[in-house]
Amino acid sequence: MPTAAKLFAAFAFAVLAFFAAEIFKPHMPEGTQFGYFSFVSALIGLVAGWRVMGPEAGRGNWQAVNTGVKTSAVMVGLALLIFSTYEMLLLAFRPAYKGPMEAVVGIFDIGVEFFRTMLAWDVLVVLIIGGALAGLLSEWAARRWR
After folding, report:
1. In the chain, where are the structural domains located?
2. Which residues have a Cβ under 8 Å from the Cβ of 130 and sit 6 or more positions away?
3. C-alpha–C-alpha distance, residues 101 and 55, integer Å
4. Could you tell me the superkingdom of the organism this chain comes from (predicted)?
């Protein structure tokens, strides 16, 4: 059921994911082609905000901050899975893997490398503080429009 809290959470986390992706880009190797990286990240943030933060809004400010940070973590996990799978598929079509099992293991290797790259202080600050603020925004919307 659509609610104002879900709408605000989806919008806030889409914006947060877009800006986190933009801040993440300089940490990648030079010459990396990003394509629709920021927009796909925003879509992931939209889904995470709607499905994770939206239903939890309306339970108090501290719970909203905690759920906002949790939603940021879910958003990062989902983005790592999606982008590392995409990268594995690109590598699989240039026969970089000997078999399907090696390709599946490659998803996790690539995901770990992306995660290590993401552990920069500016990306983490944006995700943690932005997640808390987005959680508070959806809490405000839940209280304002019951």
Report:
1. 4-144
2. 16, 19, 20, 72
3. 37
4. Bacteria
What are the φ/ψ torsions at residue 36 (nearest 5 degrees)? -95, 25
Q: How many CA atoms lie within 13 A of 7 on its CB side?
A: 9
Determine the pLDDT at residue 67: 96
CA gap 46, 7 in Å, rounded = 9
d(CA 79, CA 39): 12
Is the entire prediction scored with pTM above 0.90?
yes
Which residue, 34, 7, 38, 36, is CA-closest to 21? Answer: 38
Closest CA to 53 of 73, 81, 83, 79: 73
Would you place residue 1 in the very low, low, confident or very high pLDDT band (cuts 50, 70, 90)? confident
What is d(CA 44, CA 32) in angstroms, rounded to the nearest whole number? 21
Structure tokens at 46: 């939209």
> Is the predicted pLDDT of residue 99 greater than 90, yes or no?
no
Q: What is the rounded distance in angstroms from the CA atom of residue 90 to the CA atom of residue 75? A: 23
Q: Which residue has the tokens 């995700």?
A: 127
Two structure tokens written together for 61? 């400010």
Number of Cβ within 10 Å of residue 42's Cβ equals 21
